[in-house]
Write a structure and sequence with these properties.
There is one protein chain. By secondary structure, the chain is of the alpha+beta class. The chain folds into two domains: 93 residues, K homology (KH) domain (GMP Synthetase, Chain A, domain 3); 62 residues, Ribosomal Protein S8, Chain: A, domain 1 (2-Layer Sandwich), CATH 3.30.1370. It is built from four helices and six strands. The strands form two sheets. Strands 1-2-3 form a three-stranded mixed β-sheet, with helices on both faces. The radius of gyration is 18 Å and the shape is elongated.
């Protein structure tokens, strides 16, 4: 193997995180908003969080139900991909919105898991986006049950079964 072939994921994810942070810092400068940038790894996925310096300062970057955040995440992924030359799957969180969303999803998943265990029947959850389904699949797996996604976007759902 040549030196070019012995690359690891680490430099790429580090570069990805730095590119995303630079992009988001530039955006904050443009809109004259204050926020701290935090780069972390969640499994094999880079997580870039913008933390509000003052409560409520960044809510306009989240939008209703996270629509603005989702668009901003896609733009940030494009900026990171341009820098690394690789498709980006990084996650962006602003003002703790995704963290709160994750916590609520975990609680909803626990309720559905309890229902599946109590009835021994499959439990079909409400339609979810890919991020939400991933969170639920992880919670279900940790509980020792089985889950699968069914249906077509935008009505794709998680079905939980007792193994």
């Amino acid at each position: 193997m040549s030196d070019d072939e012995t690359t690891t994921a680490e430099p790429s994810t580090e570069t990805e995180g730095e590119a995303a942070a630079d992009y988001l810092e530039g955006l904050l400068d443009i809109i004259d908003a204050d926020g701290d940038i935090d780069i972390d790894m969640e499994g094999e996925r880079t997580q870039v969080s913008v933390i509000a310096v003052n409560e409520g300062d960044l809510q306009h970057l989240v939008g209703d139900d996270g629509e603005v955040l989702n668009a901003l995440q896609e733009l940030t992924r494009l900026a990171a991909a341009r820098e690394t030359g690789e498709r980006s799957r990084l996650m962006v969180d602003i003002a703790g919105f995704r963290a709160g969303q994750r916590k609520a999803l975990e609680e909803t998943a626990q309720t559905a898991i309890a229902e599946a265990q109590r009835t021994a029947a499959p439990v079909t959850m409400a339609p979810m986006n890919a991020f939400e389904r991933k969170v639920v699949h992880d919670v279900v797996a940790a509980a020792g049950l089985v889950s699968e996604s069914s249906g077509e976007e935008p009505d794709r759902r998680v079905v939980i079964r007792v193994s």
